[in-house]
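Quality-control log, excerpt.
Job 1 of 2 completed; input and output follow.
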Amino acid sequence: MKSRNVVRLFFSTLLLGGISTLITSFFVKRDAYAEFLNPFDWFEVLGLIIFFLALGFVFSLVSQMGYFAYLTVNQFALGIFRGIWPMIQIVLIAFALFDLVYFRYKSVENGSLGLFLITAIALLIYGIVIAGIKAKETNKKAFIPALFFMVVVTAIEWVPGLRTSGGDYAWLMIVPLIICNTYQLLILHRLTDVKK
């Protein structure tokens, strides 16, 4: 990949993370905004916008590090495990989904098992859809690695958000992570296409 494309991918993903977190903050943290709207305090509102935009940049960087770490690990694993790497990935996907439900449920005193189950199922369904698109645009062998990335790597990247008290920052974090991970997964083969 040309260095120009690496820079383009970096900054477009960074911008996507910042904007998606900012938009999500209007819904998740609306009380923080409402506090400064009546009476309107433009300085405080601007401060909130800059804070959530910068937070989104951080989430985007987490997503980008996760993506390039996965690309590296995937190449090593293909060399070491060869033909059984797809099966190992399927097992790890199942473990990550189990972890999203069981261990989160055990760590929260008044948590709802149903909510954790819905979260894991939604992540799996979304991952299947995106992996299907990736496989259709590249080749059928890309389905399992794409699903692995969308489920396992996203779940690992989400861990800091899941450890916060309350659900606000968990939701603030997962939206940009999913958007950035999806974007990187679906754009990389276009940037590395040698026909261009």
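Job 2 of 2 completed; input and output follow.
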Amino acid sequence: MQRRPVDLRERIIVALDFERPELAREMVLRCESKVGFYKVGLELFMADWFHTVDWLIARGHRVMLDLKFFDIPETVKRAVHRVNDRGVSLFTVHGDRSIIEAAVAARGDMKVLAVTVLTSFSDDDLRDYGFAGTTAELVRRRADMAIALGCDGIVSSGREAEMVRQRHGGTPLIVTPGIRMISPSEAAVDDQKRVMTPARAIAAGADHLVVGRPITRAPDPLSVICGMQKDLEAALDRDHEGSN
């Protein structure tokens, strides 16, 4: 499998889904000896604007700004311009054609990721919204379109990562949320429906794994991170051996 080189410290993106910035910063201080990539989503951003983003970048960390821009193209373009030059590495937009085009045109040095289908959605959920196909079919359509329009990559569950990687090779970034340490058949998985273990998601072709609660709600987040990284190293070694 074609795969871009990524430092192990940046394979995991810790999701700072906290209601208060001081909690987010405390978590970073607990994790930063092993992880150098963090996600700031809508909840934390609304509580803290760019302050935690700037704080993370000042500490030498990379930031994924996960606001999933979804508005008329001109508004999206202006919003992206507001993020340019702040040092953000990745930002997300919804996988709509006009939104992607606007974001790509305004992205500057950042990389834009198109969100394909949220990992909280199942096939049944899509049918409730009037889509007759499967989540995999919708991810394929949106990924093909996003990459054709110049997106740097996509956000998708690990279940679709292998399909996207096979169709598009090693060039697009694949960022995968919905990471759990056990499979869906082994336990209830809260509000995430299309989940995958870290090793399986990396083996399927994901470049980065967005991990929130399995790390941030653990009694010892650093221990969880170290365990995940050990599993990722083993999966990457197997993939390298299989490609030789």
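Post-run check on job 2. The domain at 8-243 is CATH 3.20.20.70 (TIM Barrel).
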